[in-house]
Amino acid sequence: MSLHLNNDNTAQLQELYAEMRPHSLYPLWEVLSMLVTPTPRSSAKPWKWDYDSARDYLLRAGDLISAEKAERRVLILENPGLPGSSSITTSLYAGLQLILPGEVAPCHRHTPCALRFVLEGEGAYTAVDGEKVIMRPFDLVLTPNWQWHDHGNDTDAPMIWLDGLDIPTVLHFDASFAERLEQSSHPETARPGDSLNRYGHNMRPMRGSSADRRPAHQPLFHYPYKQWRAALRELAAAAVPDPHLGHALEFLNPADGGSIMPTVTAHVRLLPAGFASAPRRATDGTVFVVVEGRARATVADQEFELQARDLLVVPSWQELRLMAESELILFGYSDRAAQEKLGLFREARA
Ligand code: GTQ
Questions:
Q1: Percent composition of the chain: helix, strand, coil (DSSP 3-state, to 5)
Q2: 3-class SS at 220?
Q3: Residue 256 to residue 337: CA distance in whole angstroms
Q4: How far, in Å, is the centroid of ligand 1 from the Cα of 243?
Q5: Burial class of residue 114 in the structure, from the number of CB atoms within 10 Å of its CB (0-12 exposed, 13-18 middle, 19+ buried)
Q6: pTM for the predicted model, two decimal places
């Protein structure tokens, strides 16, 4: 009855809210439209990091703190729309890690999973469960959840790579665990390149054989630039580019043909010189690295000029258009793997 009277009971409602609040009760109708939105409304902002200026700050940090002391000497790429969160999208973390000649970043393991995408230097290593991966520019290296890893640089030049982790997702689930090994380096348990040999050629050691030594769900952790670049080149030579993506190849976990890690999907793409992608939006906020070429990216209503090694974040559901000024090669990672498992992933192609 009182519903139809339309009498102004604002004051009474405010009184009710004030009385409820100490009892941890809150009226849904005041917030419903912010909770259940018709389309995603990310607080994350589109942003570009210029590699050269980020690199200068990283090298200055290198003069002031050792990898050993820092545990990981990394500059976080924090989204300006998510201050204080150490996040580049609402679910993902990104950072630039520096290892100087002679340094070791000590061995640890944790429930967040990590990818490394090499930007500079050649010959330093990440060791995963005691097997070194010798890293070269634009290699993709994984550290799956709970696998021991240390990084070291026996070369005479600095090594810089992008770290991509699902830290915000793990924190969201309150599922973070981490341990340090007593020694700074894990004992070497396999020859460098062993896993790539055994699991990286569309083959695997016969199940149950002693050669089948890696965890069954996550056997491979090195995707060399040399291999993915050749695959992309061959694809581009033979196929018509997808109007929204250009030529795009996703990295796979050979154990199940799914994404590289349970929460993270990664891909590379090639846009021919002069190619302008049709507008596309997707629910997976994505971090991009420019591997080669120059481009103009338009994200919603913002424009960014991109060149080699620059980093760009495109938040969920913001429309992306790419205009390749020269042949453009991009690496990208997102939480699409997690969203697909949860039945959340959507895209819209204009
Ligand atoms: O190399 O293990 O950027 O644990 C952040 C957390 C890198 C790593 C990061 C980490 C690491």
A1: 20, 30, 45
A2: coil
A3: 13
A4: 36
A5: buried
A6: 0.96
Ligand 1 centre and the CA of 336: distance in Å? 21
CATH for the stretch 47-349: 2.60.120.10
The answer to whether the CB of 58 is under 6 A from ligand 1 is no
For 179-213, the pLDDT digits (tens) are 999 999 999 999 999 999 999 999 999 999 999 99
**Cα 277 to middle of ligand 1, angstroms:** 34
| Mode of pairing for the β-strands spanning 93-99 and 74-76 | antiparallel
CA angle 236, 118, 215 (to 5 degrees): 90
What pLDDT digit, counting tens, does each position of 326-348 carry?
999 999 999 999 999 999 999 99
The structure tokens listed for 3 are 């519903």
| Every domain of the chain and the residues it spans | 47-349
Distance CA 256, CA 217 (A): 8
- For the Cβ of 97 lying below 6 angstroms from any atom of ligand 1, the answer is yes
SS3 180: strand
